[in-house]
Amino acid sequence: MQSLFCQYHYLRNRFILSILTFVGVLGNAQEISRYVNPFIGTSNFGATNPGAVAPRGMVSVSPFNVSGKQNTMDKDSQWLSTPYVKENHFLTGFSHVNLSGVGCPDLGVLIAMPTTGVVETDPLKYGSTYSAEVARAGYYKTHLETSGIMVETTATPRVGISRYTFPKGKSNVLLNLGLGLTNEQGAMIKVVSPTEIEGVRTVGSFCYYKPEETYPVYFVARFDKPAREFGIWKHTQKYKGVEGQWMGYNGKTRTYRNYYKEVVGDSIGTYFSYDFKETTQLQLSIGISYVSIENARENLEKELGKNTFESVYSETRKQWDKVLGRIEVSGGTEDEKTIFYTALYHTLLHPNILNDYNGEYPAMATRETKHTTGNRFTVFSFWDTYRNLHALMSLLYPKQQSDMVKSMLAIYKESGWLPKWELNATETTTMVGDPAGIVIADTYLRGIDDFDIEVAYEAMCKSADQITDNPLRPGLEDYLQKGYLTTSTTSSGSVSTTQEYNISDFAIAQLAQKLRKKEAYSRYTKRAVSYRKLFDKKLNLLRPKNDDGSWYHPFNPDTGANFVKNFGFIEGNSWQYTFMVTHDIPHLIKMMGGKEPFTKQLKKVFDNKQFDMANEPDIAYPFLFNYVKGKERLTQDMVDQLRTTYFKNSPDGLPGNDDTGTMSAWLIYTMMGIYPVSPAEPIYTISRPVFDRVTIHLDPAYYEENTLIIKKEGNPKGYIKHLELGGKKHERFFITHDELTRTGSLTMYLK
Amino acid sequence: MQSLFCQYHYLRNRFILSILTFVGVLGNAQEISRYVNPFIGTSNFGATNPGAVAPRGMVSVSPFNVSGKQNTMDKDSQWLSTPYVKENHFLTGFSHVNLSGVGCPDLGVLIAMPTTGVVETDPLKYGSTYSAEVARAGYYKTHLETSGIMVETTATPRVGISRYTFPKGKSNVLLNLGLGLTNEQGAMIKVVSPTEIEGVRTVGSFCYYKPEETYPVYFVARFDKPAREFGIWKHTQKYKGVEGQWMGYNGKTRTYRNYYKEVVGDSIGTYFSYDFKETTQLQLSIGISYVSIENARENLEKELGKNTFESVYSETRKQWDKVLGRIEVSGGTEDEKTIFYTALYHTLLHPNILNDYNGEYPAMATRETKHTTGNRFTVFSFWDTYRNLHALMSLLYPKQQSDMVKSMLAIYKESGWLPKWELNATETTTMVGDPAGIVIADTYLRGIDDFDIEVAYEAMCKSADQITDNPLRPGLEDYLQKGYLTTSTTSSGSVSTTQEYNISDFAIAQLAQKLRKKEAYSRYTKRAVSYRKLFDKKLNLLRPKNDDGSWYHPFNPDTGANFVKNFGFIEGNSWQYTFMVTHDIPHLIKMMGGKEPFTKQLKKVFDNKQFDMANEPDIAYPFLFNYVKGKERLTQDMVDQLRTTYFKNSPDGLPGNDDTGTMSAWLIYTMMGIYPVSPAEPIYTISRPVFDRVTIHLDPAYYEENTLIIKKEGNPKGYIKHLELGGKKHERFFITHDELTRTGSLTMYLK
Question: InterPro entries, from UniProt (chains A, B) (predicted)?
């Protein structure tokens, strides 16, 4: 929804009128954001952070507590992909660009830290323990124990605002551009005036995969009070040789006091110092841009203006209330509401906006400055999110989902390829498969069609068919010739990748059918089930094949769990992948020998603890019992069991990495009692809802009905006996997206 | 002379008319630059370089051959203050900002290097041996043996131009912003288009004394042909820890191909690649500024415009001809003319312009952007140059000298203090003493008075009298109380510093007298001879005193030669300093017991090999025999002997470090037969000239006579018998500046 980013009262654009009209339907939702607990997922490797952020904001201001041996989990002593973990207790500042729920470290830079006394530039010395943390949607607060400073943060979409309450005396605010979540370095700082800093910081190279894909993030920082003194520090590398002996500062940190010129280098920072005669509040506001310093300044000026910390937080909280208020629930405990709305909050962090206030953004790959009239979104972790998150966006925020698809198509135009794992206009090429087309088809088939479907179809076919120089589908030649990738094609995930390509081809087929492209429909439909050749009847499981068509041997289907690398499967094993053919379950049932063997085999995944709630490949498994008439209770039991086991109102309340909202989306659906079980098929399957009543406010620009109400009737501990859809009895445990949104009402009767 | 920097035909300013008028008097001087051999001083620690440069240009394009163990003298294995030494044979590029004749490393950055084949970013791999070097005023050429590329360079005042003649095939031009003469690092590069780069490089921290005094040099580089491919490389530091293991590029160099965004870091560079179908010439032009990238671009556009390499070189050569043509000589050998004009060339490198084409420059210390209508000069190594170079400038280029004084006064206004060793708007505080005022007084007393003398006088008195927080005269309190610094005041140079302060006070006294400030004249005159208290009659030498007034003991007057550190003297010993009281020689003679003991003691300096031709304190010694009537022949013999011993038309043709032209100025004077023996006294003493006739074209804006002719008559191997000044017999071996320039003719009769 465009409105997310322009409802700030100080923003002006042509969307405002239509937004205000629509906002009216949200009703009395103002208080919903109180159910957001941003600490959920900050432990147990959930990789979320409690930073203050606006819906889909470019900026978040998060405590950064992963540096230093004072901490249990130090970013340098282990693999950490988040600026904050609840286990730690020593923070070294507040980072202004952060990722939530990702598996590799990136961003986590522009780290500001208030201190007292003399300026100290070593984070391990100026860092502090902290207490009295408070985190809400759009707000974070803590007390620094070493200095007695109270820190509060909030944010607009492109500006992070910090309010420091300093005790009387000498105080400083440091902006450390050396420290960051990753080992990536390089920055420029220029002090513009005693109240303003501008600069650049290098970020990127997600997972350290593509060293050449780093890029600058630009910023302009402003204080609301002029510094008494300021300066820039620079850490010097240690040099050997004769000259090194002359350098008194060899390997040390130098300071440039009241210096107005650019300082550039790998590890630099700046301090602004004050001498307060009494307890004093100081506001630091940092505007961000991925285009230029000028745009960062414009973002700051247009979004912050003369607003105070209070008014910004009030507005951002209002935004959260509105966007979270798209769903209203009744019934359920306070904790259940909290995990539900926090999950919804987590799906509203990424994808986030990339474009500046003026519409400019860096084009994919070239980073050429381009302009958009809608929102250009970024942080597309499609291997995760194609499975459920985008279907949720299509239902709840179709304008946003449309802009996401438009962003994907723009990326295709800019770089020649659809994105796979796009991050701030770079392609990280993380994970396998070709998932963008699945999202596009799924969106279109759910009726969100205000984008250029022909270009989209062309883009999808390109990655499906171009054999040489295809960055999205390595091993495509084998896939097309043999139907699958072999252990020679790739040493990691030959079966998984085949399945992913199958699902992508299924998506193209579904879209082709919709677009009445019969030949293509037929061709891609055939391609979409080639995984069948990897089905080993002896094991009733999928199994890698060698180049000569023989089975990979020796083969242990258990190998590959817990991220152990194996030949056939990536981030999983055969158990966790065999059923990941949700577009072909009836045939899988047949191959397995019928409904009983299928159910038995699927149940074995859970009974033998092969199911992994923390990763995506098997994420739809608990719903697959619904494909066997009479076994639906297994789905209901399993979904409830998983949800109550893994999702809690506590820092370890996510099963693992949130994967930019995918785990959260799973939770939201299961708590509502519907699940989009098969990507690119606009259907939901059913499980027992948590809430008595769920009201979804549908966007009238995309849906005929204004509301969709999902109700639970009867014995809340019972099993679903039958459904009513728009008041009519519905026999199947599957409902199409169209049926659901057209009728506007689904009631589940439990007994 | 303003004209130096604006006679370029493509330049426009209001000075042009007056300049053109004046240029007329230079007559037939076009060919004089052929006598410049820029290789003189490139060996024997002369610290000059053969780079192409315009008169007093901000930019020079010098071969950079001091990196890599392939070289005899590697910058990392020894103290090297020059980008080029003749001893070496392996060059790694061409640096665009360089210092000539200084004792500490600085600048020597923006190093461009043409290569062939695949892009290699390690200087030790892409470097090359070279041959067929040619260096002229404003031109340098060599042949790179590894690649077969011919490199030619030339320059306007603010733009360095390189012409590469590439063989057919794949070629590259690298601009390495990591490599530099010093260990200072930090840069930003942004490729603007396939023909343009902009960026910043950190320089400064001369001698590594003041780590906080580094600053950016900005540049815009343009190629005359678009690159087929370009990229930026960045060297990554080596990280330890878990994440370091994931970094395939840990401690390695990464490349960003066809990348248009800023890259920042300690060690980065850029390459522009071509594929030439035949032998092709490529021109690289780099505009420089110390203010901003925008100014660097404007400098490039205004000074280069559409000019070709040929036309720029032709114009720069014309400029050199004009400025060198200020003196015409006849008689003397070709080698003598060459060492003479090369020395003059060396006095025309520093001080150099700091202001951009538009008049902007960074203010002293704050680096705030300021504007000047004249030229703002920089690189003031006053401890060296106050002794002779500025007097020469007053004679030959009074407008330049006036602008230099104005620059000094602007520095005073900007920073509160006159400069001591100023370098690109930073105060390096190198060496001892308070020399700026000596230069100002000397200039004023020579009749160059078009600057604000009251401000100048105020500035001089401030450093002479302000006891606390005085950066120019440490130890001033002792000096004022006791008349001298003691071994407790400073552990290095208590006597030397006392003498320097004496000379500065003498300068103030002389100026006060001229300005009719009687009290001040009397007071400073007294202060100017307080060195006498350090005269040890037993030794007939100066000697350090302790805090209690006792002589420093044990004391060996020989200690301190060859830069051995000692208590009383800096860069010298008692022999080399005792006579450095040229403003008080008659009294020194008295203290030594009369003319004979004085002569004997002075002669001993030479006989005992205590005289150091390579350093400044004793630079006037050979002329001091003239103070003893009847001993003038000793001066003539000694000057000839020193000149012929130490000055040659070869790379080792300077006695040592040129000290930004001070050694060269000594040579110029001695070859003309006059020497400004006592700073701030507008007098010359006489020695045997080399040339039969020297014609100096005086600037009519400052001098009544248009020409000054110094002639030698009689036996050229004989001694000076008598002089004629303006046709009148002149008995003394001393002539005032006024007498010399008013009469316009000095004839020396030798017998």
Answer: 6-hairpin_glycosidase_sf, GH-type_carb-bd, GH92_a_mannosidase_put, GH92_N, Glyco_hydro_92, PNGase
- Of B208, B258, B265, which is closest to A248 when you measure between CB atoms? B208
Sign of the CA dihedral running A564, A565, A568, A571: positive
CB contact under 8 A, A242 and B362: no
Query: CA distances (Å), B470 to each of B363, B462, B477, B626, in order?
Result: 20, 9, 10, 37
Q: How many other C-beta atoms can be found within 10 angstroms of the C-beta atom of residue B257? A: 13
Given this model, what pLDDT does residue A365 score?
87
What DSSP character marks residue A33? G
Residue whose pair of structure tokens reads 């698809």 in the numeric block: A405
pLDDT tens digits, one per residue of B621-667: 999 999 999 999 999 999 999 999 999 999 999 999 999 999 999 99
Interatomic CA distance for residues B525 and B496, integer angstroms: 18
Q: SS3 of A260, please?
A: coil
Q: In angstroms, rounded to a whole number, what is the distance separating the alpha carbons of residues B319 and B317?
A: 5
Least Cα separation, residue B131 to chain A (angstroms) = 29
B23: pLDDT confidence band, cut at 50, 70 and 90? very low
Of A78, A239, A266, the CB nearest to B265: A266
Which residues of chain B does A255 touch, with a Cβ-Cβ cutoff of 8 Å? 212
Find the helix packing angle between A632-646 and A662-672, rounded to 10°: 130
A187 contacts in B (CB within 8 Å)? 264
Distance CA A296, CA B262 (A): 15
Q: Using one digit for the tens of pLDDT, what is the confidence trace for B673-689?
A: 999 999 999 999 999 99
Q: Are A262 and B200 in contact (CB < 8 Å)?
A: yes
Q: Is A47-323 in CATH node 3.40.50.720?
A: no
> Cis omega (within 30 of 0) on the bond before B351?
yes
How far does the CA of residue A625 sit from the closest CA of chain B (Å)?
A: 41
To the nearest 10 degrees (0 to 180), the angle between helices B632-646 and B662-672 is: 130
Contacts of B243 in chain A (CB under 8 A): 75-76, 79, 105, 182-183, 208
Of B212, B243, B257, which is closest to A255 when you measure between CB atoms? B212
Sheet containing B734-736, strands listed edge to edge, beginning at the edge strand earlier in sequence: B674-675, B683-686, B734-736
User: Do A208 and B239 lie within an 8 Å CB cutoff?
Assistant: no
The CATH architecture to which A17-37+326-355+611-751 belongs is: 2-Layer Sandwich (3.30)
Model pLDDT for residues A107-130, shown as the tens digit of each residue:
999 999 999 999 999 999 999 999
Chain A residues within an 8 Å CB radius of B362:
261
Q: Search chain B and give the residue with CA nearest A212.
A: B256
Predicted confidence band at B4 (pLDDT cuts at 50, 70, 90)? very low
Alpha-carbon gap, residue A339 to A481, rounded angstroms? 47
Please count the CA atoms within 13 angstroms of the CA of A197 that sit on its side-chain side. Answer: 34
Domain boundaries, chain B: 2-324, 325-349+595-751
Class of domain B325-349+595-751: alpha beta
Exposed, middle or buried by CB within 10 Å (0-12, 13-18, 19+), for A240? Answer: exposed
Cβ contacts below 8 Å, chain A against chain B, sum to 150
| Mean per-residue pLDDT, B462-486 | 97
Q: For residues A573 and A566, give the distance between their C-alpha atoms in angstroms, rounded to a whole number.
A: 8
Is B325-349+595-751 in the same CATH topology as B2-324?
no
Q: Which residues contact B657 (CB under 8 A, 6 or more apart)?
A: B45, B46, B47, B81, B101, B102, B103, B614, B663
What fold is seen in the domain B2-324?
Answer: Beta-galactosidase; Chain A, domain 5 (2.70.98)
ipTM of predicted assembly, 2 dp: 0.84
Q: What is the DSSP letter of B561?
A: G
The burial of B4, by beta-carbon neighbours within 10 Å (0-12 exposed, 13-18 middle, 19 or more buried), is given as: buried
